[in-house]
From TrEMBL:
It holds the Pfam family ETF. It comes from Persicobacter psychrovividus. The keyword Transport applies. Residues 3-188 form the Electron transfer flavoprotein alpha/beta-subunit N-terminal domain. Keywords: Electron transport, Transport. SMART domains: ETF. This is Electron transfer flavoprotein subunit alpha. The keyword Transport applies. Belongs to the ETF alpha-subunit/FixB family.
Amino acid sequence: MSILVFIETDNGNVKKSSLEAVSYAHAIAAQNQGTVTALVLGKVEESQLGALGMAGASKILHADDTALDTPSIMAYASATAKIFNDTNSDLLILAQSALATPAGARTAVKVGAAMVSNVIEVPEVSGDSFKVKRGIFTGKAFETLTVTAPKKVLVVKKNAVEMKTDGGDATVEKVSVDISEGDFKLKVLETHKQEGDVLLPEAEIVVSGGRGLKGPENWGIIEELAGTLGAATGCSKPVSDMDWRPHHEHVGQTGIKVSPNLYIAVGISGAIQHLAGVNSSKCIVVINKDPEAPFFKAADYGVVGDAFEVLPKLTEAIKAVKS
Ligand SMILES: Cc1cc2nc3c(=O)[nH]c(=O)nc-3n(C[C@H](O)[C@H](O)[C@H](O)COP(=O)(O)OP(=O)(O)OC[C@H]3O[C@@H](n4cnc5c(N)ncnc54)[C@H](O)[C@@H]3O)c2cc1C
């Protein structure tokens, strides 16, 4: 089985979610005598390529056309479809994102493949049978699909697989892709990045506060814990609606979807709309004074207690461990 992995970069750096996609592809390849080729489009720091080998790619194809330095869904789809066909690939893997998911869908159309998004497990492959599990209803339910098309595109949810770091060296080959003016019907003119030490969508750790914090004047305990952990801060929707916190910190179905290794929810009840934004987190810790708060059902660890007592003690304890 020949597996191509679409690699998403940010300013020349390979995204962690793309390393997970390579690890995912490696897991499939290991069970099905497959090969894993990573496709990098546009600018990438040479020093970043080693991680793709360690994640399980045996070959890296780099299309270093400067036109691809600026993200473009249509151009990425054209380039990926060409390489998919040129390499006689059977399977394309992408890590779910606002850019990669639509690029994967367009690529699927161009190469005549079936696409499955929101994939959460390595597929079961046996002979011609290819079964894949995906999350539906914002992660509240799962379904298993049989994919009968010979060519397949799988879009994998963040944090669905463990990242492999013990692979080897991958060969790097430059490739050219045919992209045309028609691939740039939409052009990015300017990009303004959210400012702050740790950006919420990319954060490895998030400390989030809800209405249980009582008011914006109490956010110091959230910020201090976040600062101690090197975390980003988030909040529930009512908190940003009431202007206690800026809107770009609002986490959930209608806000930012996060996928950190650790999500600490403080004074948040755990409404379904909030959970929809955090259910890709690897580990969820809930601090709430109500033992019946629904969030405890989704938590890996729970502390029943008053945030104003628990948080300062937790921050002090973490500082003590760190010093
Ligand atoms: C269409 C739609 C979309 C929505 N999208 C989102 C979304 O994207 N994100 C989102 O968050 N919400 C969203 N909501 C709102 C959601 O339904 C909830 O109303 C909201 O998440 C509740 O926020 P909260 O948990 O901060 O507040 P509350 O529900 O008021 O919960 C506060 C919690 O704090 C606890 N608490 C109180 N005092 C303390 C204390 N001293 N120490 C510890 N714990 C304490 C309480 O026990 C309680 O569990 C949406 C709603 C709708 C209808």
